[in-house]
Write a structure and sequence with these properties.
Rossmann fold, Arc Repressor Mutant, subunit A, four-stranded antiparallel sheet, three-stranded parallel sheet
């Protein structure tokens, strides 16, 4: 699975138990969680329920992988907050298609190149940002940073993760650079009353919240 997913460009982090998964997720919230029903100690179903109770992971999509194909088992997984359900054996092609579909749903509708959160709107096709209908002059790096944040709201990202996702893993940039561009992004949004969307999570990193702070 890891080989096939990495071949499709996914960045993979693995865990061998529910407890280890919780620790890995606290280090960096993923875009999606592939969760096996059968885990040592805590079951996948128990872990799904736990993840749905935590603010940090409440919005992260989960696909359950299992050999249990009974309707009652599928319903149990969906009731626990699982977004999709793949029954073993499955092909890598099927799994990748499910992953892409769930990620598209979780990121909201951007089929028209439009992303909106509160007063902010990004027109991806025109490469423009608007706040309350007014054009927001923004630099290219701040634009990429805002676009990433708005398509991944309510999740905390470390500086190193933002470097990977926004700048690209092949580019060498110091982590302090992230702080500089976060500050510039806030300064860009401040005249429009939107800087509170970009929040610092002390000791963890940054997040874009649908509920701005003053």
């Amino acid at each position: 699975m890891r080989y096939n997913l990495e071949a499709e460009g996914f960045r993979i982090v693995t865990a061998e138990s529910g407890d280890e998964a919780v620790e890995r997720i606290r280090d960096g919230v993923p875009d999606l969680i592939l969760l096996d029903w059968m885990l040592p100690g805590m079951s996948g179903l128990e872990l799904a329920r736990l993840l749905r109770k935590e603010d940090l992971t409440r919005g992260v999509p989960i696909i359950m992988l299992t050999a249990r194909g009974e309707e009652s088992d599928r319903v149990g997984g969906l009731d626990a907050g699982v977004d999709d359900y793949v029954v073993k054996p499955f092909s890598p092609r099927e799994l990748i298609a499910r992953i892409n579909a769930v990620i598209r749903r979780s990121r909201g509708s951007d089929t028209e190149g439009q992303i909106a959160v509160g007063e902010l709107r990004i027109d991806s096709a025109a490469h423009r940002v608007y706040a309350n209908g007014d054009n927001v002059p923004i630099g290219p790096t701040e634009y990429r940073l805002l676009h990433f944040f708005m398509t991944h709201p309510e999740r905390v990202y470390t500086r190193s993760q933002l470097l990977d996702y926004v700048w690209g893993g092949s580019v060498y940039v110091e982590e302090r650079t992230v702080d500089v561009h976060i500050r510039r992004l806030r300064q860009t949004l401040e005249p429009f009353g939107c800087s509170g969307f970009v929040q610092t999570v002390r000791g963890a990193g940054y997040r874009f919240s649908n509920t701005p702070v003053d």
